[in-house]
Amino acid sequence: MNAALRLFSSTLEDAPQYLKPVWVRIYVFTFFSCIYEAIGDISKYRNANLNVCLHFQWEEVSIMDEKNIPIRTYQVCNVLEPSQNNWLRTDWIPRSGAQRVYVEVKFTLRDCNSLPGVTGTCKETFNLYYHESNDDRESYIKESSFIKVDTVAADESFTQVDVGDRIMKLNTEVRDVKVTTRKGFYLAFQDVGACIALVSVRVFYKTCPLTIRNLATFPDTVTGADTSSLVEVRGSCVNQSEEREEPKMYCGADGEWLVPIGGCLCNPGYEDKGGACKACTAGFYKAKSSDVGCSKCPPHSHSLRDGATVCDCHSGYYRADTDPPAMACTQPPSAPQQLISVVNKTSVVLEWSPPRRLGGRSDTSYKYPRLGSDSGSGSQLCLPCGSDVVFSPGQTDLKATRVVVSELRAHTHYTFIVQAGNGVSQISGAGTAQSVSVTVTTNQAAPSPVSSIQATDVTRHSLSLSWQQPDRPNGVILEYEVKFYEKDQRERSYRIMRTFSRSVDVTGLNPLTVYVFHVRARTAAGYGEFSASFEFSTNSDPFPLIGEGVNSAFLLLSVSGVGILLLISAAVFIISRRRSKYSKTKQDSEEEKHLNPGVKIYVDPFTYEDPDQAIHEFAKEIDVSSIHIERVIGMGEFGEVCSGRLRLQGKREIYVAIKSLKAGYSDKQRRDFLSEASIMGQFDHPNIIRLEGVVTRCKPLMIITEYMENGSLDAFLRKHDGQFTVIQLVGMLRGIASGMKYLSDMSYVHRDLAARNILVNSNLVCKVSDFGLSRVLEDDPEAAYTTRIPIRWTAPEAIAYRKFTTASDVWSYGIVMWEVVSYGERPYWDMNNQDVIKAIEEGYRLPAPMDCPVVLHQLMLDCWERERAERPTFSQILNMLDKLIRNPGTLRRTGGERPTATMLESGVGSEVCVSVVPEVCMPEWSVCEWLQSIGLERYRDTLAAAGYTSLDSLLALTHQ
Ligand code: AMP
C-alpha cells in the first residue's frame, strides 16, 4: 500500500505485576500523567508521545520485558468486584486536518477462566471512546460527552501457565473514527472489569502521498472522512511541461490514488525522464510537446545547446518552411541535363533529363522562363515572352521533363531557359546556376483564327459585320475571307466574300433567317484557320406578343405541373423507403430466426396495438381473492411493492411479491406498467424473476412475481459485507450470467443490468429482474439518453450512440461482477458521470476490489473491452465461471481469504466442490438446489444414488 500513515502519538509500556510476560518493546514511553502539559505545535506532536491521564483504578506500572528492558504499561485488574467503570483518557490530540483517524491499541488480556473464583464479574473486553474538542486542556470531561468507537475484544488472552512460561500474548487492534467537527479530540479507554494491560496506543491518519502521474504533481492529500469517500485533487504540471488535459486524480479512503485523468506533456525541447521534464541534450531535439521524446538531429543538421526544439542545418544545407523538423537538411538541385528542342512551325517541343544531383529531396520541379526576340536576326535575351504564348502542360512548378510551347510568333528567335528547383531553392538563393538554355527559331506560319465577329447593323435583307485582327497574324494580313450560309442549310451551300478591311456588308439575305458566319485571314504564309461559327438573324416584322393571360396561365400550369411532379416524386421516394425499411426489418428478423433455429425469440409487447392483447398472451390473469397482501417491502416506479401470499386453486400457497399501479395513472403509465409483465411473462428460467400473473380486471392493477426473501443484490451485499466466501460470490455471478445467457439467446437486450436490479432469494439464488429500461429508452429517446441512462453501468458505445446490444449487456455484467466482489460498493465511487465517461474514454477501468481473485478481475476487464466484438459472450462467461467453481484453487486470494472451499474428487471422475454451501443457507435448501446454483445439477442422481440427499450428509463427504 502506498498510503502514508501520519503518526500522532505513541505509546504505553510496562507490564502489570501479575503478568510477568515477555514484552515486545514498542516505543520508549516518556510520561503518562494527569498533569496537562502544553502540547506544542502540530508537527512536533505528530510523533510525540501520548499524554494519558490516569483515572480511577488504572495504574501506571513498569516491568521488565523478556530482554530485561524496562517498559511501562497501564493496567487494571479489578476482576473480583462487580460494576467496574474505570477510565483512562489521553491528552488532547490535534487532528491536523485529518478527517478519519486510526487508533492502534496493543494490549494483553487475562483469560477470565484462568482466574479462580471470579465468575460473573470478570470481563474480556474494554471500550474505546472519543470526544471531539477545540479545547486542548479540558481538565474534566463528562463520561457522557464521550462517543463510543467500539468494544474491543482480545483475539488472544493469556493464562497463569503463559505467565509462568513468560509467553507474550500481545493483541493489536485497530479502529477508525471520523473526526471532522473540532480541532482535535481525546481518546478514552473504559474498563468494565477486565484484567488488562495497555502496552501502546498509536494514533494516525492516512494520506495519499505526494506523487507524480502523467507529468502532473499531486500533493500529499489527507483522505476523506468516510470509508468510501474520494477526494478529488487537481494536479499541477511539472516544470517545463504544459497541460494536455486538466490533470485530476482521486484520493481513496485507504490512501491510494485512483483514476488518473488528463495529464501534461513536456514542452518542446524537453522529454519525460521518470516523471520530470529534462532538456534534450546537444545533438538531440524535440519539436512539439506531443512528440514522444527527444530525437537525434536528422542528417546534415546539429544542435549545439541543450533544450533544442529544432536542429540547425549544416552550412550549405537548408530546410524549407514546410519541411518537418525530423527531415534531413537538403540542397537545391543541380541544373537539368541534355536540353533538346524540336521546332514545328510556331511551336517548340523542349525535352531534357533530370538534374544529376537532386539535393536529397524528391520535390524537384521545373519552370520555363523564355527570353525571346521578334526579329529574324539576333536574340534579345532580356525580353520575356508575351502572355499569349501557351505552355503545355504549364509554365511553372512542373514535374514532367517535357513541355510544348505553342502560339509563338513565326520567324522569331526564342531562347528558352529551363530551371530546376526544389523546396529549398528560394532559401538557398540558388538561381540560374541550376538552369540550362536553348535558342530556337520558329518557322513561317499562317495567321491564327479571328476570335470574334460582331453584327453592327441588321436589316430584313442585310447584315453589317466587323471583327478584330487575329491575335497572332504571323505576318502582314493580305485579306480576309468571309464564309456564310443559312443555318438550316448547314454547309451544303455557302457563299464566300473577300475583303481587305476588318468589316463587310452582306446583302441579299432572306428576312427572318439565321445565318452562320466564319472569317479567316491570309498572309504570305497562306490562309489561317477559319474562326468559330457566329450566328446572326435578319429582321422581319415584330413577332406578335403572346397574350399576358395566356402567359400567366402557362406559367401557372408549369409551376403547378412542376409542383405536382415534385410531390409525386417525393411520395414515390417515401413509399419506396418505407417499403425497403419494412422489408429490411422483416428480413432482419427472418435472418435472426435463421441464425437461431428452434430458439424462442422475445416479442416486444409494444408491437401490439392493443396492450391488453399482449398482457393476456404472456401473463395469467389472477383472481384478486387468491392474493393475501402482508406488508410493504419496497417502492417501485409505479407504486408500492408488497410481499404476500398467493393460493391458486389446486396448488400450494406460495410467497409472492406484489407490485401495484398507484391510483390516478394515465393510459401511458398503465401500458408501461403492464409491459414489464408482458416481457417477464415470456421468460422461463431459474435465474430470471418468475411472473406468477397479473390482476387487470379490478383496481389497483397488480403484477405478481415470486418472492425474493433477500431483496435486491446491492443492498443485500452491503448488509453482509465480507461475509461470503469467494466461491459463494462466484456462485451468485454464475446465476446472473446464466440468466443473461438465456435473455441473450432470446434476443432480449436488458439495458439496465446492475446489482440493484438483481433479486436474491433465501437460497442465495440471484435472479435478473427489472425489465423496464428498454421500454423507457424506446419511448423517449432524448429524455432517456440524457437523464435515464445508468452511465456507470453502460457500455461506451451505448452512451455515445445508443448502440444497445448483448455486448453492451456484457459490459454491464462486468460492472455487476465488480459490485458483487466489492460487496455493493458504488462503481467509480463518488466520481461524477462526466468524469466517468472521460476516464473510460481514456482507457481507465475499475481496479480489482479488495481480495478479488485475479481471474475474476481479468474477466471484468474482458467485459470492458472498448471493441464490443472483443468482449466475451454470456455463454463464454458462464463456461469460465463454471470452470472457476470446479477449480476453486484458481480463485485463491492474495491474503485474508476465508478458507472454506475445498476440492473433492467425485466417483464420476469430475470435481465436486462440497464446501460452497452458503453460510446463510436456509434449512430447506436441498442438494438439488445447491447443485443447480453452482451449475452441477448433472451430479444430482449420482449423489442421490450414493445416499447424499441432504446438505449435512454432503458435508460429511471425504476425499476418498
Ligand atoms: P422495482 O420496482 O422492481 O425496482 O422494486 C422496488 C423494490 O421492491 C426492489 O428494490 C426490491 O427491494 C423490492 N422487490 C421488488 N420485487 C421483489 C421481489 N420479487 N421480491 C422481493 N422484493 C422485491
Question: What can you tell me about this protein's structure?
Answer:
The chain is an alpha+beta fold and 960 residues long. Among the domains are: 24-35 and 50-208, Galactose-binding domain-like (Jelly Rolls), CATH 2.60.120.260; 339-442, Immunoglobulin-like (Sandwich); 453-538, Immunoglobulin-like; 605-707, 2-Layer Sandwich (Phosphorylase Kinase, domain 1), CATH 3.30.200.20; 709-775 and 789-892, Transferase(Phosphotransferase), domain 1. It has 18 helices and 51 strands. A hairpin with a 5-residue loop joins strand 4 (59-64) and strand 5 (70-77). Helix 5 runs parallel beside helix 6. It starts with a strand and ends in a 5-residue tail after the last helix. 36% of the residues are buried. Bound molecules: adenosine monophosphate. Keywords: ATP-binding, Cell membrane, Disulfide bond, Endosome, Glycoprotein, Kinase, Membrane, Nucleotide-binding, Phosphoprotein, Receptor, Repeat, Signal, Transferase, Transmembrane, Transmembrane helix, Tyrosine-protein kinase. The chain crosses the membrane at residues 553-576.
**Helical segment tally?**
18
**Helix content bin:** 10-25%
- How would you state the average pLDDT, rounded? 79
Distance between the termini: 43 Å
Q: Tell me the radius of gyration.
A: 48 Å
The parts where pLDDT drops under 50 for at least 5 residues are: 1-55, 375-383, 541-597, 779-786, 894-925
Output the CATH topology of one domain. Jelly Rolls
Structural shape: elongated
Bound molecules: adenosine monophosphate
Q: Characterize the biggest β-sheet.
A: 8 strands, mixed
CATH homologous superfamily title of one domain? Galactose-binding domain-like
Beta-strand share of residues: 25-35%
- Which architecture of one domain does the CATH hierarchy give at level 2? Sandwich
Q: What's the total count of β strands?
A: 51
Subcellular location: Cell membrane; Early endosome
EC number: 2.7.10.1
Catalytic activity: L-tyrosyl-[protein] + ATP = O-phospho-L-tyrosyl-[protein] + ADP + H(+)
Main location: membrane
